[in-house]
Every structure is written in structure tokens, then in C-alpha cells.
Amino acid sequence: MNTYRPAAVAGSFYPADPEALRQALAGHLASAAASAAVATAGEADRPPKLIVVPHAGYIYSGDVAALAYAPLARWRGRITRVVLLGPVHRVAVRGLAAPTVSAFETPLGRVPLDAVALASLKDLRQVVWTDLPHAHEHSLEVQLPFLQTVLGSGFSLVPLAVGQASPTEVAEVLERLWGGEETLVVVSSDLSHYLPYAQAQAVDRATVQRMLQFATDLRGEQACGAAPLNGALLTARRHGLASRLLGLRNSGDAAAGDGHRVVGYGALAFDAAPGPAGGDEDAHEDDRLGRALGAVARRAIAQGLGLADDTVPAVTGHAALDELGACFVTLHDAEGELRGCVGRLEATRALVEDVHANALAAAFNDSRFEPLRASEWSGLRIEVSLLAPAEPLNVLDEAQAIAELRPGIDGVIFEWRGARATFLPQVWQQLPEAADFIIALKRKAGLPADFWADDVRLSRYRVRSFADRGHEQTRETAS
Fold first, then answer.
1. CA 314, CA 328: separation in Å to the nearest integer?
2. Residue 341: strand, helix, or coil
3. C-beta separation of 463 from 388 below 8 A
4. pLDDT tens digits for 281-326?
5. What is the DSSP letter of 89?
6. Residue of 226, 237, 246, 248 lying closest to 272 (CA atoms)
7. Using an 8 Å Cβ cutoff, are 163 and 134 in contact?
8. Residue 117 and residue 121: Cα distance in Å, rounded?
9. Strand, helix or coil for residue 344
């Protein structure tokens, strides 16, 4: 048995001879370098977080793919991990297929897989471990020579072949792998298939416009990589990325193509919003704060269960703990199911007190659940969400509210006379469309789905969320 996946489509989708392949790639990248979109991207101060690229034969889609890949050469050495998602074409998969080999091979050499990152997905039920879907799959393989050329040998790979998977299932995987600027997410997808040239242009323009607006209900006839795309766009929207179209063409535009039955190709990039100065220092400070918050919450629950103090880490000091603060504490069980969520919207006490009280309430006083049991302790996941002050959202009607909300970013407070309800931004993962989000919020407030009144009050807020999974704590969002 091979410990690596050998190239399967070299000689058909791209040249099998290494030198011929290098020349082909150089030609595609040189063509892209003349693009205004690529020139502008090359002036950015940070790499894109997510790119969408086509996966046809290079003679058809190579120039379009190069529009996304050419700017990455600037970030060689800074991008050290690539999470690569593409659809399955030959082997049916329920979920996302992760390989068991240690490397993927192309004529340009072998790309090592990130074993640690892959291992972090072991507990996710939608991830299946099999090499069969990867063996002859071209949607992932054709991206590798481009990546090897622009990033060199200094990156590892997390390749996932996506079959039948919901946007939420794909997004959950991506959240585990999201990382920082060292991690690039690549989604491989062509657009429409076998339409006449003019019709394909119209269809693909509409599809790309929806992608730029972070649609999560794309269909296979619009994009063959709809399953990974929908999940990636949901994650991008949650993280507040900014979308850019780099290029849109089809096989009829290629020298080898014709206009009777064409396949569409698009290249898009999604960039993280500029952050405050500080870089690694800020990230380290966030990690310190996250560990302090997690320790306060976990210690409070452990004491409520009567567990010994040595079962949880000690609470470390952090200046923010003594300041006024408002938070929500959310609990999930070992299967990822919600186990409790309690919090406050206004900062009326020290943050350490708020975390302690809300952790106890989420574990033992959330009326939707039975009190937490000691047998659940080992698999308990805790998330502490720090709330920024809410700001009024002045809207005339429900349609304007839907248009004004920022999916994945806004926490929302709905108020009407004595009725009040809120959803944290994390709820967008389950309700990615603003209309559904508002309906669910009204129902939570005890009002019918079609309710609206002139004196409805909406407010929105942002959160910084920190996850604590026992002794392994990671910062999930800082939005």
C-alpha cells in the first residue's frame, strides 16, 4: 500500500512531464500577472483567507485559476498550510472524505499532509476516513501544481473531498481548521456546464454575484462544487470576510474551446478585514484572555458538580476580568449538542463575576435542560462570548431589517413591548439567511413568525468568543 497518493490525472488535465508542466504554469501565471485585479491584490498587506478556483484541464481553465494563484507568490513562507476542498466526481461520499495517506504526489514532487490538523477532525461525524474518493479525483489534484509553484515546498496540505454535506457540516470542519494568516482555504469548483456560450455567461454572472454576497444555497447546476462552496461561504460570512471577483470566463474563451457547450470558470478571493496593529502580540493577549475566561467558567461548573479543584486549571489573572463586562456562557456536550446557554446583555458587574454566574446558570439553571451531571464533565465544551455594547438598528420594516443585518457578524436583540429575545452571532451557523434568523428570533420572543409592528425595536452587537474544551483551549472568533 502506498503511503502517498500518486498523481492520477497528470497527462490529461495537465502535463505529466515536469518541465512541460512548469512551462505551462509559468504561462498561466504570466497571463494573470497582467490583470488589474491581480495587480491590486499584490498590494495587500496580508494574504487572502479563502480563494475559489476552477478545476478543469489547464488549457481551458488554467488562466482563470492563475488569477487567484499569482498573488500568492508574495506570501511564500507566510502561508504554511492549505485547506483544500473540492467536490467528488467519481465516488459517492456522505460527508467529507479525509485521506489516510501522508502525502499527495504530482510531477513536481510530494506535498505532505498536515497530520495534526487532520487528527483534529476525528470526532466529527461528517468526516469519513477513506482514500477511495481521492484516488482518481481531479478537483483537488489540479490545484496542487499551482500551489507548489507559488508557495514552494514550505506548506502542508489538508485535502477534503466533499460529497453530500450541508453548509453547516462543512462550516464546522472549516472552523476547526481556520487558523490565522498561515492557513489558506482553497475551494475548487467550476460553474455551469454545457450551456451555449451566451446563456452560460448570463447564468455564471448571476451565480458569481450570489457567491460575492455569501449565498449558502448554491445548486450543483450552478457550481459543481456547490457543497464545499456553500459551507465555505457560510464560514466566510461568519468571519466577516470581504469578497472580490478576480475573473469570470468559460471554456469557449479558451483557444481549444467552442461556444456550443461550454463550462464556466470563476476566480474569487475573500479577505479578512484589516485588524488593529499588534499582530502576534494581540493574538497572544487574546489567548491569555481566553484561557482566563475558560478557567473561570470551568472552575465554577466543577465546583457546582462537587469536583476536586485539581480537575481544572487554575484561574490566571487578567486585567479584563476585573472590568465591567457582559458575557454569555454556552455549553455543548461531547456530541456537539447544545447543553445550556445563559448570559447578560448589559455590563453591570465585573467580568469574572459575570462569567462565574453565567457558567453556573448555563450548567444548572437553563430551563430547557436537565441540570448537568458529573458523568458529562469529561466531554463538556464551554464557550464564553464577550459582548460589545449594543447599538440600535433603526429600521422602518422587516424588509429593511433583513437587508441591514450582517450575517455571521451581528448578534441581535428583538424587543416589542414586554417581549424580548436575542441570538448570538454563532446562531447564524444554523440560520444563515437573515429572513430565517429574524423569524426564529420572533418565535423565541413568543411572537408569531409573521409578526411585525411599528414599535418593534432591534439592536445589534458584536462578540468575541473563546472556546474551552477542557485543557485544550482555542480562540474561535474575535469579530
1. 21
2. strand
3. yes
4. 555 667 788 888 999 999 999 999 998 766 666 666 788 898 999 9
5. S
6. 237
7. no
8. 7
9. coil
**Cα 339 to the chain's mean position, in Å?**
23
pLDDT single digits (tens) 364-378? 999 999 999 999 998
Set of cell numbers at residue 45: 498587506
Contacts of 1 (CB under 8 A, 6+ apart): none
Return the C-alpha cell found at 448: 408569531
Q: Does residue 68 contact residue 109 with C-beta atoms inside 8 Å?
A: no
Q: What is the CATH number of domain 4-271?
A: 3.40.830.10
The full set of domain ranges for the chain reads 4-271, 282-387, 391-461
CATH topology of domain 391-461: Dna Ligase; domain 1 (3.30.1490)
Q: Say whether 391-461 and 4-271 share the same fold.
A: no
CATH code reported for the domain at 282-387: 3.30.700.20
Identity of the amino acid at 336: G
Q: What is the CA radius of gyration of the chain?
A: 24
Instruction: Fill in the DSSP letter of residue 310.
Output: G
Query: Are the beta carbons of 266 and 65 closer than 8 angstroms?
Result: no
